[in-house]
Amino acid sequence: MSRLLDAEELLEILTNGTPHREVYRGQGGGWFVTYGGGRTSAHAVDILFQGGQIHSVYSNCRNDAYHVGRTMDIDKTIAERKRLGSKIINIYVGDSSPYAGSQWGARA
């Protein structure tokens, strides 16, 4: 069994990993980094989350996946995708406009 990443190593991978990396809770409560980035402990994840260095990936799964980035507002994103028929709109928690913060920027 491989060694678990500590908080510093985890933050390095999440910050500089390519493609964009996330840490997620797997079966049995273990924590894993996407794209084969390794394993870590709940303690390392908690240190980074409590320190504000990582954030939830999705608003409806706040305790299951984290990354260095903003939290996607799943309900608003799905509503906008249904309304616009688009699969590429992402809306983030705290956005004042439906398109603010999306990868397409503000739209008129």
Question: Would you give an account of this structure?
Answer:
The protein is 28% helix and 13% strand. It is an alpha+beta fold and 108 residues long. It has a domain at 7-53. Strand 1 and strand 2 form a beta hairpin. It is elongated.
Question: Which short descriptors sum up this protein?
Answer:
alpha+beta, 108 residues, elongated, 3 helices
Please state the structural category.
alpha+beta
Number of helices: 3
Residue fraction in strands: 5-15%
Strand order of the largest sheet: 3-2-1-5-4
Count of DSSP strands:
5
Overall, the morphology is: elongated
Q: Cα distance, first to last residue?
A: 53 Å
Helix content: 25-40%
Give a quick account of the main beta sheet: strands, pairing sense, barrel closure: 5 strands, antiparallel
Mean of all residue-level pLDDT scores = 87
Low-confidence stretches: 104-108
- Reading the helices and strands in chain order gives HEEEHEEH
Radius of gyration based on Cα positions: 15 Å
How is this fold's topology laid out?
Elements: H1 7-16, E1 23-25, E2 31-33, E3 38-40, H2 42-50, E4 55-56, E5 65-67, H3 74-84
Antiparallel strand pairs: 1-2, 1-5, 2-3, 4-5
Helix pairs in contact: 1-2
Brief account:
With 108 residues, this protein is α+β, with helices and mostly antiparallel strands. The protein has helices spanning 7-16, 42-50, 74-84, and strands at 23-25, 31-33, 38-40, 55-56, 65-67.
